[in-house]
Here is the input.
Amino acid sequence: MDRLPLLLDRVTNLLREDLREVATNHGLKLVQLDALRYLCTANRFSDTLTALVAWLGATKGSVSQTVKALERKGLVTRVRDDGDGRVVHLRPTAEGRALAAAASPAPALEGAPTDASTADALDGLLRALLAARGGVAFGVCRTCRFHEARAGGRHCGLLDVPLGEAQADRVCVEHAAQ
Amino acid sequence: MDRLPLLLDRVTNLLREDLREVATNHGLKLVQLDALRYLCTANRFSDTLTALVAWLGATKGSVSQTVKALERKGLVTRVRDDGDGRVVHLRPTAEGRALAAAASPAPALEGAPTDASTADALDGLLRALLAARGGVAFGVCRTCRFHEARAGGRHCGLLDVPLGEAQADRVCVEHAAQ
DNA sequence: GGCTGATGGTTTCGACTCAAAACTATATGG
DNA sequence: CCATATAGTTTTGAGTCGAAACCATCAGCC
Here is the structure.
């Protein structure tokens, strides 16, 4: 009895349904809210179009349009990089940040279980998903969105594991290249 | 440290990215594949437009368009109900079933953990999500998509719990009304 | 029977998404 | 300096999305 795909399907749908409603309540499409939320947590390495493309899993042409829509709504501004003339940083405006803050987390998750076992299970699932896509090398850990330089040493904020100083420059399986 | 929303976001995105690729490989949009997969598991109560709308979480106008696209591609046919002249049953064609079978489960889930604890965690999550939406009464259990009349008694196939004979006519929290 | 309302679907509209492909501009490496 | 890679934009055509208007059919009720 393999309930996993079924459960995952259902959870995903409910979550998206919920977020979609939040988005439309704020006059946005779901993808636009997704993008805005990501950009609000992105640092100077991960606030580019390419990173957003990787995160959302769509094509760059498509994402470029979405960003244009966000810009038109005054939620995001484009800032050319000083060093590299090709890259453009996508900075949420104050209004954009306010909207993202108001729109997350998903209301449906308010009462969600906060116990460690649930997170652990998702952890395992995430690792499996990443492994299934061939453990694609997508970026150096030190430049990853989830890389944290803590007091006790470097840390991966997504998988919640400590990292040796040496690993910080290794390629990271998680592709939220930053 | 609340990693749950973050993990859920990531898992959802990866899963969708994966499914989207599968869909485009078969010349479909992601939503179309979602709809087709649902219809392939639906019985005579749940193969209607309204049920599909509830499952996908979009508006009926939108879903009607999607179904039209599937019909145009020869993957689904419309069949008027005998008893109720208003309802239309959406039956996947042989070709539609073949495509859905070839396209699922998501390749990324192939190597996913099959242990019970992962499923249990998702189970809890699903219950929380359903509770958060106010435990909406969406249909009588007996007419639910996941209702099963087993040898040992009635059974809910989604939450994997046995049901008393009396409960079968109670309102079900899960809204996949069938 | 006939009226009223609810239910199941379809259609139309405008804004937007999507993938693919062509394109521009800026790096980087021999 | 030239070839190639990288970052991003634009265009095009099919399709999604929500909203609102619309058309049937059914169910309750007097």
